[in-house]
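Box S1 | Example of a co-folding query
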Amino acid sequence: MICYLINADVYFPVYIFLSAQKGEIVGIRIKGTGRYIPEKILSNDDLEKMVDTSDEWIVTRTGIKERHIAADDETTSDMAAKAAKAALENAGITADMIDLIIVSTVTPDHAFPSTAALVQKKIGAGKCPCFDQEAACSGLLYAFNTAYGLMASPLAYKRVLVIGAEKMTSLVDWTDRSTCVLFGDAAAAFVLENDGNPETEDYYVAGEVGADGEWADILRVPAGGTAMPPSHETVDAKLHYLKMGGPKTFHMAVLSMTNACRAVLEKSGTDVQDVTWAVPHQANRRIIDAVAERLGIPEKVYLNVDRYGNTSSASIGICLDELNRSGKLKRGDLVLAASFGAGLTWAAMLIRW
Ligand code: ACO
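Box S1 (continued) | Returned holo structure for acetyl coenzyme *A
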């Protein structure tokens, strides 16, 4: 079963979410990519001055050397809009040509309106439908899956903007060394286009998305929602910051990403050696190494966790944009992307570039 939160500004029939099954040929491809990385860098050396940690501990345990931090007045929708503009330019289209905007985020500007609606305004898109989708770090792949379902459904959206954007540092307790070293801020965006040509090969080869609410407690922000509305007490107790059972999350991450990748390869009848790039969620170098080793493709793994840390739903998107813009991806290449996140959620997707 798939579980995620949709914050919609418009009404969507339920059936469209059930249609993300590869069936008829629809010819949807990734036409453009973009990213936005905030300017300010927070290095491990900087963190040494803030909490009792060391560059050696952080690099050995996580592979992270630095992360980028959004400015105080910079919001998730600001970053998302900048990534979106880069993707539109890369695709060679204008914002008014977009039919639907989906933003994956756990750090929306507000509970409502949706971050997607704010992005629509900031990029100057028309009055297209917009909604946020929340599946934590698995969110971008969930959103790719949702976008495919909507484009292949009778609604037949032609061009969809899919964005993963996070200001994770807004959820970080800068006095908690076990979590504050892990996260960074960023956004990535994609223009998906159904060009109407039956000869066009879909980007979506196969997908696997799942969740297990039994593990909801290992990764969460306790207060701020209906379970614990904000109060002086919740602020004093630092309950608006993210809490994580690190070792358990590590274990579940390796298991769920490996299984999801294997399921996708099996569904599509693809030999893992035919994969051009493996793009895992960049949470921790040791998690990535463990998954790559189990799949037998360590040499195909794309890594940038050292430069950005964990940017949640932006992380896989940044990797794909870097690969695309550096010319390391060619049309027809197969990309195996995989992620895990709070929920616990997981997702894997085999993408044809
Ligand atoms: N610097 C120095 N020491 C530290 C630090 C730090 N930054 N953080 C923790 N320690 C200490 C602990 O206090 C502990 O000390 P103790 O033994 O005296 O009690 C020791 O290091 C070991 O702590 P562990 O938590 O067991 O360390 P571990 O090897 O498991 O690494 C880590 C911790 C990096 C958090 C790891 O568990 C991990 O990566 N987990 C997965 C996290 C993740 O991927 N989260 C992503 C989800 S985010 C999302 O979905 C929105």
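The chain is about 30% helix and 25% strand. The two ends are 27 Å apart (CA to CA).
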